[in-house]
UniProtKB/TrEMBL annotation:
Recorded family membership: Belongs to the 'phage' integrase family.
Family matches, as Gene3D superfamilies: 1.10.150.130, Integrase, DNA-binding domain, Intergrase catalytic core
CDD domains (alphabetical): INT_Rci_Hp1_C
Protein name (record): Integrase family protein
Lineage: Bacteria, Pseudomonadati, Pseudomonadota, Alphaproteobacteria, Rhodobacterales
Naturally occurring in which organism (per UniProt): Polymorphum gilvum (strain LMG 25793 / CGMCC 1.9160 / SL003B-26A1)
Length: 428
């Protein structure tokens, strides 16, 4: 076996699966490992004083040169000869790899687009923001100081139980900022984030194995809260009264829009004027949870958007200051619901309510899924496009909800409907 050279390291090809190794012919136990993703890591294989075979990472090729890695391997072999076991002291050249350090590495790599998420594309900024929130609020407080290589399933499932029990919950500080909540749903999603971080680290040679592999995630109770017709009427009255008393107009408009369309909260709040196709009555999202997407909305929703005051902001629902979109809708919604005693209602319940009204009007699950922007689950759904049937469904659902909110019997003609009527009259 020849001495390991830079050319040999550069020529080392990634295997189709698993890992491949190339060992040095002069320094026993020194070598390099390449994963199927192409990540190359210098390693040292040895037996400790107890005769147990151990393998440790020395450093990532590209960050560390071959000569530096060889020098580090010699130092560690000297420590082994003296009776020490580097695996018990240092699984990483920069010190014991803690969960906090690994999370920081993940965020840094993901922010630069070097980690791929769903559909093998760089992880979206919105997903990364949620991951960062879970890391800072739950993972670091419970597991941050723990060494990754020493973690056991019991440690991870114990952290999950603590999150579910609310041990990491924190109230809002002052008048701004979010609330850190616990619960089964939060615990399960946090475990998914942690598992994903470990998987990325294993694939890129940062750690040897995923300590969260096999973890049993808590099965949370699905939140299926939706508003009844009576509750929609109550919400409409509360919004009218709140408007008269000076409640934030942008917040009230955003709430109404979310109910008329079934949009996810951030889809609605982050809606840009350039994305509205007024002629088609649709929103052309450049990117969503399910990728680029065209979403049909009812005429009542289009009218609401066009009625929003124009500012220099690209958003229909702009922030009071700064360049971003409005973010205070949750607090506005809570105040409105408190007026009429609507309990256990979140903004996501408006999305369920939209779907419920659509079902009550007799629309199929496939049509409702298209209106909500659900990811395609089959070949047929991939070919759903803007057709008259989908426009009719969006119009009908939005008009029905608007009529309940406003407690009117007759549907108010939307601008799009009026325009189409004029076009038909001209053709005749």
């Amino acid at each position: 076996m020849a001495k390991l050279t830079k050319k040999a390291v550069d020529d080392l090809k990634a295997p189709a699966s698993g890992q491949a190794f190339l060992w040095d012919g002069e320094l026993k136990g020194f070598g390099i490992r390449v994963t199927k993703a192409g990540a190359k890591t210098f390693i040292l294989q040895y037996r400790n004083a107890a005769g147990k075979s151990r393998r440790i990472n020395i450093g990532r090729y590209g960050v560390m040169t071959l000569d530096n890695a060889r020098a580090e391997a010699k130092i560690k072999l000297g420590a082994i000869a003296a009776g020490e076991d580097p695996a018990d002291i240092d699984d990483d050249p920069d010190g014991p790899m803690t969960v906090a350090a690994l999370c920081d590495w993940y965020l840094s790599e993901a922010e630069t687009g070097r980690l791929l998420g769903r559909r093998r594309r760089p992880i979206k900024a919105s997903s990364l923001a949620m991951d960062k929130s879970r890391i800072e609020a739950h993972i670091k407080p419970l597991l941050g100081k723990r060494v990754v290589s020493k973690l056991k399933l019991g440690d991870i499932e114990g952290a999950q139980a603590d999150i579910a029990a609310g041990k990491t919950s924190k109230p809002r500080k002052g008048s701004r900022g979010g609330v850190t909540t616990g619960g089964e749903g939060v615990a399960g999603r946090t475990m998914s984030t942690l598992h994903s971080i470990f998987e990325h680290a294993v694939r890129l040679g940062k750690i040897e194995s995923n300590p969260a592999k096999g973890v049993r995630k808590i099965a949370s109770t699905p939140r299926d809260r939706r508003l009844s017709r009576t509750e929609i009427e109550k919400l409409g009255k509360a919004m009218l009264a709140a408007e008269a008393e000076g409640e934030h107009p942008t917040g009230l408009a955003a709430i109404r829009f979310l109910l008329l369309t079934g949009f996810r909260r951030m889809e609605g709040l982050g809606l840009e004027r350039a994305w509205l196709d007024e002629e088609e009555g649709a929103i052309r999202f450049p990117d969503t949870k399910s990728g680029a997407q065209t979403r049909v909305i009812g005429g009542s929703a289009v009218d609401l958007l066009l009625a929003q005051p124009r500012t220099r902001s690209p958003f229909f629902f702009p922030a009071d200051w700064g360049d971003g979109h409005f973010i205070g809708v949750v607090r506005v919604f809570d105040r409105v619901c408190a007026r009429v005693g609507l309990a256990d209602v979140t903004l996501h319940a408006l999305r369920h309510t939209f779907a419920s009204v659509a079902a009550d009007l007799g629309f199929s699950e496939l049509t409702i899924a298209a209106l909500l922007g659900h990811a395609a689950r089959g070949v047929t759904q991939r070919y759903i496009h803007i057709d008259e049937a989908l426009k009719l469904a969006a119009d009908k659902v939005a008009s029905e909800i608007a009529a309940i909110l406003d407690q009117t019997v007759a549907e108010r003609p939307s601008r799009r409907a009026a325009r189409e009527d004029r076009a038909h009259a001209s053709a005749a």
